[in-house]
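input
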Amino acid sequence: MAMQKRIYAIGSVFIYLGSCLLTLVGATYACGRFEAWTQAQPRALISTQVLWPKVPPLTPLPSPTPVPLSTSTPTSTPTPVPRPPARVEIPTLGISRAIVQVGMVMRGEQLQWDTEQLFATSSRSDLVGHLQGSANPGQPGNIILTGHNYNPGFYNWYGVFYSLHLLAQGDVIKLFNEDDELFTYQVDRVDQVPWQTYATADTMTHIVYLSPTQDETLTLVTCGGANFAPFPSRVYVIARRVLEQE
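output
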């Protein structure tokens, strides 16, 4: 009887241990299945659910057609260069005379305008000179013309600007350039300025009349105060451009 109880107790222990073992194995299997399911679940969700709309692939924009660079140089109309004066007419004094260009020459130790070329010869009357470096008709600046002043008793004829001091405000002076274009000027004033020495004060007084101007100005200059050397003054005629009537 005692033996049967002992066998029954041992069997109960084995049954209990077996059930625990089965429980442990089942739990382990269940945990393994759950872990495998949890690892596969995110991939399944991502692969089966539409989380983002499908975006069609971008179509590349067509390449712009290259525009060939122009190799031609743009043409521009050159600004016409004003032509030098070629003839002067002063109706009030009855003057119509050719104009030549006058440059500078050294006489002794002094640099002077070469007005010797303006004197009359046996084949022509004396000329009017355009001081090189001064303006041309039709452009802003001071157009400076010079001519001799002498009487017929000394040279047997009048200098071209012998009567220049007789001009008055409003008198007309006409210039023709080398292309025979007409430019008209009207006398603004006539000044007679003393010229006794080549001192600095005298020189500065006369330079004012020979300096460049902003507006188109015509200046005529000759010796004054006498008709033979030494001339005690200079005569300056200042004229302004007026538009020619069609």
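quick obs: Residues 144 and 210 are 7 Å apart (CA to CA).
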